[in-house]
């Protein structure tokens, strides 16, 4: 039964999540916490690990949840559930690309989805920060977190530093600051 639940729930998330992996995180979070598969703190760690790995953070998180919940089979089923809807949609769009290409309303729908996707990503970031008590407490750990965050954000925005370099250096900072 758990295998079907994992596949079906992640299939539904794959069907209705627009905007990539970060937009999926609030849905995955709600799913795993409501089923009791993970606590908010555990899922926060999943987000951190998934963000450092190559590939989509949404799929990485899904595979991690599947593995934690039902082992290798659970990981495979969550991955399949997440990618199958996109695969089917891409096949259908590819078949009818000429019809979709000239429709103005398709462009308008995607333009209308952009603010919602941005809101989902910002919501995930705020929820992540609140779950770590970074915003609500003042300590060495929260202060150093905010400093590393602001420096990393500055390098990403103003120096146009490659995200992988920022992730690598932030990981080293984490070892130095929190070891």
TrEMBL record:
The keyword Magnesium does not apply. InterPro entries: CHR_Transporter (IPR052518), Chromate_transpt (IPR003370). The keyword Iron-sulfur does not apply. It comes from the Bacteria. Keywords: Cell membrane, Membrane, Transmembrane, Transmembrane helix. It comes from Pueribacillus theae. Its main location: membrane. Belongs to the chromate ion transporter (CHR) (TC 2.A.51) family. GO terms for molecular function: chromate transmembrane transporter activity. The chain crosses the membrane at residues 6-25, 46-67, 73-97, 109-132, 138-158, 163-178. It is a multi-pass membrane protein. Pfam families: Chromate_transp. This is Chromate transporter. GO terms for cellular component: plasma membrane. It is found in: Cell membrane.
């Amino acid at each position: 039964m758990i295998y079907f639940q994992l596949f079906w729930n992640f299939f539904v998330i794959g069907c209705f999540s627009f905007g990539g992996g970060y937009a999926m995180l609030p849905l995955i979070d709600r799913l795993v916490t409501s089923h009791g598969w993970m606590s908010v703190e555990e899922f926060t760690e999943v987000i951190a690990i998934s963000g450092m790995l190559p590939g989509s953070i949404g799929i990485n998180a899904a595979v991690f949840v599947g593995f934690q919940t039902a082992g290798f089979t659970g990981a495979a089923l969550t991955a399949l559930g997440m990618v199958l809807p996109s695969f089917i949609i891409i096949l259908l769009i590819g078949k009818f690309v000429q019809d979709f290409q000239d429709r103005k309303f398709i462009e308008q729908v995607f333009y209308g989805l952009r603010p919602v996707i941005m809101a989902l990503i910002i919501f995930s970031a705020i929820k992540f920060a609140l779950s770590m008590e970074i915003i609500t407490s003042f300590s060495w750990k929260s202060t150093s977190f905010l400093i590393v965050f602001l420096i990393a954000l500055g390098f990403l925005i103003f120096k146009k530093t490659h995200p992988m370099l920022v992730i690598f250096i932030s990981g080293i900072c984490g070892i130095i600051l929190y070891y």
